[in-house]
Amino acid sequence: MELKLVVVLLLTLCALDAALAASVEGKKRNVGEREKIKDIHSTVDALFRRVESSQVKQDTPFLPPAFWQKRRGMWESDVRFYFHGHEDLFLMRESFSIYDDNMFATAWITSCLLESYRYGNGPKPSDDRILAAVLVLSSSLEYFHFISVVFFTVSHL
Fold this sequence. Notes:
This protein is mainly α. The chain has helices spanning 3-23, 31-53, 87-95, 103-119, 127-155, and strands spanning 78-80, 97-99.
């Protein structure tokens, strides 16, 4: 399952968990309601662990063609080519992907994790994970600003 879909499921289940907890607050909970809440909590925890495990833990250099550069704090995101047709083409799409080291996925996943904790009943992301994401996002902003200034300057010479 793609990471973005897992994050959407996590956010949705946290909201559902908060709504379910609020709806039975003050009422005498029966066994079925307690089991639903326990099941949602375990699903949210499993999805949260899956999302957290896909954050890059350490920098890796670009070594073509075997390894793509990965920066600590980024969440993994892959570009896939969608081949249509026979099953062989489906297998090609599933097995071939290119790592995409971009700010969007990291910013989006970080904000979803923080919102699921703040507004739902999601687990609290660790300070180290959030700090790593914020640091890599700020360094990416500086890098892309530098590149845009260089391209702008060169294009106007």
